Amino acid sequence: MLSSEDEEFGSSEENGDQPAWFTDDGSEDIDASFKEYDITSSPNDFNIRTIVDFIEAGPFRIPGFQRNYVWDRKRASKLIESVLIGLPVPQIFLYEEDRNQFLVIDGQQRLMSIYYFVKGRFPRRAQRPLIRRIVAEKGFLPKEILADDAYFQKFNLYLPGVAGGQRSRFYGKNFETLGEDQTTFNLRTIRNVIIKQNAPKEERDTSIFEIFNRLNTGGVNLRPQEIRGSLYHSTFMDRLNKLNIEPVWRNLIGQEEPDLHAKDTEILLRAIGLTVDGENYAEPIGQFLNTFAKKARALDVTQLDYLEKLFGAFLERVQGVSVDGFRVERSGRFSIAMFEAVFRAACTDAFKKKSLDVWPLTDAALAKLKSDKKFIEATKEGIGRATHVADRYARARELLAAK
Asked: What ranges does the record list as Acidic residues composition bias (predicted)?
């Protein structure tokens, strides 16, 4: 059966009640680049009112409406208090995508904390996965959801003092009850560093991926797919988010709600990417996913509709087998390597013909694949190696096709 070294997908507790997904081969790590860049950076001090207007009007593209907000109210309140009393706040990094269009590279949690405070609303922790689901379906955060107390609560500042000490004078206040301090808050400025890559021109956004990877000023590390989903945001990425909430898919991976750090979306990207462009696969797998995500921005509506239907056709096949066929025997966790190979093997012929004739799946074939020695060897160390990716695909095709 699949070894414990196989890539697995499960859950545990991280950051309180936040779910976490597991992989043990490190294949999702972003590879260091040693290119030299010609980059210009310019500092700008925007006041809070301007920042909130930019978030609402669109100049600031914040992946926060796609990535879950992860701060608690105490941490967000300390940030707001720092702004109110004039303490320096870590600078925000923005990437200039186009004229008056900026991608937030670092500082998303801070910006969203400020935005939520001005709106007087704070997302309930238990509802954040559901909020993400709604955003995935709608493509934006509906005003009625922001106003709904089932999803959000009033954002009153939570600033408990040290034991025996005096509480902050802002404790319990919200944006509307700040009084004269509201004007002070609106006029406070935060340093924004705007970055633009001048060279290499043929890979104009590679430096931004590097910056995403290396920055850690916000205190909550971004994961590879969070970075990828922001940097290469497209209609294709929106479709992946939609596919990620399909009930059959959620049942297959064994998690009711989407992962906070988009690991499940990365699995979909990986499976679809290898099906569409696997013949051009080159390690490391992280770079392959980056390249494919960038290419996928050019897919038109017809192509996107077809990929969505192809995934649906695969899920229909999945409903005819036990989900245990995609799980590691010892741990019961979802096997990414198994899913990737099976999806690609079952869907490749259909994709080439632009049909929906996905290969049938049987419990016997999946069990045989999981216990196949060659397949097991290809799921061990270096799971992203080109030879291992090719071997898993070849074994899956052979065994799934066997009568």
From this structure: 1-16
Rounded to 5°, the CA angle 179-184-187 comes to: 135
* Listed residue (217, 290, 229, 219) closest to 67, CA to CA: 229
Alpha-carbon gap, residue 51 to 44, rounded angstroms: 11
| Sign of the CA dihedral running 105, 107, 109, 115 | negative
Question: Residues 77-101: pLDDT tens digits?
Answer: 999 999 999 998 989 988 887 788 8
347 in Cβ contact with 275 (< 8 Å)? yes
Q: Please report which confidence band the pLDDT of residue 156 belongs to, taking 50, 70 and 90 as the band edges.
A: very high
- Give the whole-angstrom CA distance, residue 3 versus residue 370: 9
121 touches 153 (CB < 8 A): yes
- The pair phi, psi for residue 188, each rounded to 5°, is -65, 145
**Banded pLDDT at 34 (limits 50, 70, 90):** very low
Under DSSP, the state recorded for 311 is H
CA–CA dist 347, 168 (Å, integer): 60
| Residue from 59, 230, 24, 186 nearest 222 by CA | 230
- HSE-CB of 105 using CA atoms within 13 angstroms: 26
As a whole number of angstroms, the distance between CA 160 and CA 263 comes to 35
Whole-angstrom distance, CA of residue 241 vs CA of residue 381: 30
Cα separation, 366 vs 326, whole angstroms: 8
pLDDT in tens, 183-227: 999 999 999 988 887 776 655 555 666 666 565 444 445 677 877
46-to-49, 159, 198 alpha-carbon distances in Å: 8, 26, 24
pTM above 0.70, yes or no: no
